[in-house]
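Backbone geometry:
***
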Amino acid sequence: MHFSIGGRALGRGLIMGCVCAAVALPVSVRANDAQSRPAAIKHGGTLVVSQGPAGSWTANFNPWAASMTNGTGMIWEPLLWFNNLKGGKITPWLAKSYKWSNGNKTLTFNLRPGVKWNDGKPFTSKDILFSYNAAKKYADFGYCGCTKAVSKVTAPNSLTVQFHLKKKDSTMLFWIGSAEPFPQHVFASKGDPAKVQITKPVATGPFMMGSFSPQVFVLKRNPHYWQKGKPYVNALRYPAYSSNDSDQLALVNGEIQYGGVFIPDAQKVYASKSPYNHFWYSGTGAPVVLWMNDVQAPFNNVHVRRAINMAIDRTAISKVAEYGYEPPANGAVLIPGYAKTWGVPKSLQAAPSHANISAAKAELAKAGSVDVTKPMKIYVVSGWSDWVTSVQMIAQQLKSIGMNLTVEPLQFSAYLENLQQGKFDMAISWTAGEGNSPYYLYHDDFSSNPGTYAPIGQTATANFARFKNAKLDQLVAAYAKTTNVKQQVSLMKQAQQIVASQVPVVPIMNSGNWYEYNNKQFVGWPTAKNPYDLPPPWAYGHGNGNLAVALHVHLK
């Protein structure tokens, strides 16, 4: 299931990864490989892209609009690039380096010289200063999500900008580094940037507006783009499809070269129809979990939560509900890309792939007189068929420990309201926590941070379970106070042991990164053998772009 929900707690495109050392970075190969570009790379061509059916297009390429147009993330750029698939590896982007100073309370970005907005005007530190000040003035313009943490921003010169923090907070590296600056010369007189309908965006990215109609729009190559020789393709074309069927047919027929939709049994339905049709459903996304109302019986008893965790057959759910494309999640509720650096093996293994009913019953016996047999409901979004099947299987599996569960599909608005208000027994849903380490998920979903946690009856934007653990809160707070990577890893390893032991949620599966590509004309795609970055066209850019792929793909 793929969805995009705006806001910090629910993710701005779900950019994930790990924290890298807070020091000045060397110029990256990806950002500068054009200068050593192999002669074999061929320029030109129009790449047809689809993120899924959209009915018809309305032009608004504002990354802070409530409903932005697909492809917005191909136009705007951040200061730093965080590679979700490579454990959050940082690549210098509009900033060529960064540095912490003043006891880790000042974060300095050195901007890349020669960068221009697509109208030819220079990109400077004044644009970042303007963007920050606009975010302070207008709440809807999220920009860096940093205004409460920052005391002031200064620009010593045109290529240097400094963020002065009120207190140590290493997480600002991600929030500021991943933010896309707006051009001062365009927006200074327009009021709240978030409320501006942007039909012809002035940005620094590799593509800019070409032509637009409700049926199809084209993003053309930016002639002022700072990565010399890139992009390799001349244009991106986005047709509007009215249904899943029409979108899927266009994919099968090779009319779309770059897709990001879920196709059931994709090998049979899509790949087998042409030797050029390929897909890679990597299952490397954020965990999908079974939320429980942890402050109400029986879920306020840790032994009940552990028993549920042991009684679920994740492998069966993956195979039946998700065609095997979304693998079982781990017990630490870690995104797969984090496991190598941040994972504790015992914690990762705390969620068995297959049900262990005897262990579940033994754990339930420790709960004492707690009654798990009373009728309860599992909420799911109506029409999200794979999740509906998943919770139907879960309800059946949990009969083995005496639970009496009914699946209740709800319209999305009612479903989300019930979760946020704490008016539910159980529900299948996503995990929040966009960021560049496990900290962000643990902070948003499992800590008592007032930004994401709230008592029942009040709106919690992420911690739907209302889970509280004083030690976990301490570890999360300590993480933000250091830029030392070894210390951060140690803190998050301790935090994940609490998560694995206390089971605030029951991890089910890792969400799929749906991605199809046709290599009849174009090559340079990410594959299982060459996984250079997350592949879908909606993987970054607030769920509406993927610069990593757009800058790699080229004609045969």
Q: What stands out?
A: The chain has a mean pLDDT of 91. Residues 113 and 159 are 7 Å apart (CA to CA).
